[in-house]
Amino acid sequence: MSNCAIVGINWGDEGKGRMVDLLTRDYDVVVRYQGGGNAGHTVINEYGKFALHLLPSGIFRDGVVNVLGNGVAVDPENLWQEMEQIRAKGVAITPENLKISDRASLVLPWHRELDALEEARLADKKYGSTKQGIAPFYSDKFQKKTIQAGELLYPQHLKSHLADLLEWKNLILQKVYGAKGYTMEEMLDWFADYGEKIRPYVCDSGLFLRRAQDEGKSILFEAQLGSLRDLDYGIYPYTTSSNPIAAYAPVGSGLPSAKLDRIVGVVKAYSSCVGEGPFTCEWFGTEAEQLREAGGEYGAKTGRPRRVGPIDLVATRYGVECQGATTIALTKLDVLSYMDQIPICAHYELDGKQTDVFPFPALLADARPVMEYVPGWKCDISGVRKWEDLPQEARDYVELVEKAIGCPIGYVSVGPERDSIILR
Ligand code: GDP
After folding, report:
1. pLDDT tens digits, 387-406
2. Residue 17 Cβ contacting ligand 1 at under 6 Å
3. Which of 73, 99, 163, 316 is such that its CA lies 20 to 30 A from the CA of 245?
């Protein structure tokens, strides 16, 4: 049996979706273990191009069972929409290939509203939320004030629990934010609609995973976002509200006894970052526009232009260490083909001193990139499938990154399609 986690090393959007889509052929089960619909994995395959927000990327593979683990923020409205969109392209989604953990909590309409109200209150100090309700959701989960998906199976219990939560939540909505609040009728209507839609998929997926483990099935753990957005290890408070690091995969998946045999860390050949927060190697102006255009760096969920810059070796090495990555997938190498020389943020300068240590979040805004440049290859590499067929300059760049981050690069991706990959 082999278990593997696929995780982001940087700020997210590294191309995890394409790697999970590629590797699912070797796994029986794919589990999402954290996060909600606030980010998107882009997958291109024989059914078309998809931005997956909540569904595990194994949904396109016949025979793969997909699980939304207890650590996931399950938004029934968004999930249902996504299921409908994917079904419309001919992909079957049934309780056999999609299982929602009964212990996963549900994102409710008030979470999204509270997210927007709090960002508006913060005004120019906003965190850059995608306003999907994720931060209010996880706060409520830690306060033990959410509805678990399993409660959909016990309507009487759900009703009385909901009444208690509603009373408390209306106090906050009305007294703190001056909002209207919700009535019990509105909430029951919402549950009658979206709750009913997802109910057939809710089960004891922890039991399913334990059995799968006993039978020697191989399990792939799929993360959302990247190390630097991890609530505990990232650029707090500009993080997400959950833990994308691989160490959380056993807890959030529903298989706390899982041992990870492989951790594939996905790194992009340059940097991108969505939303607010310090981004040391950020480019501006035409340089940034050119790279953004070349890499198609617009948010999968929001369409927002992503902030971009060269690869950041300080942040990437830290990300690799946080994830305990055993192998790296370097994606989007093809995007750099237009550059005469390839820029690299090799170190940081902080307080007048050069450092290779990723700083404490509050100091990060003062860090300056120390840049180095290596020769570009200036030719189209998107058709290359063998390491030895890559131009020498491209191989040198990959090897330089590999050495600097201290982890072998096992995959080099040169295009978004399933087969645009070089195995080393
Ligand atoms: P994720 O959230 O980590 O899965 O990343 P996203 O899906 O948001 O962003 C990755 C984007 O890059 C998607 O549009 C992919 O189709 C695309 N992509 C992934 N790998 C490559 C690659 O090697 N080359 C190019 N040109 N595009 C890629």
Report:
1. 999 999 999 999 999 999 99
2. yes
3. 99
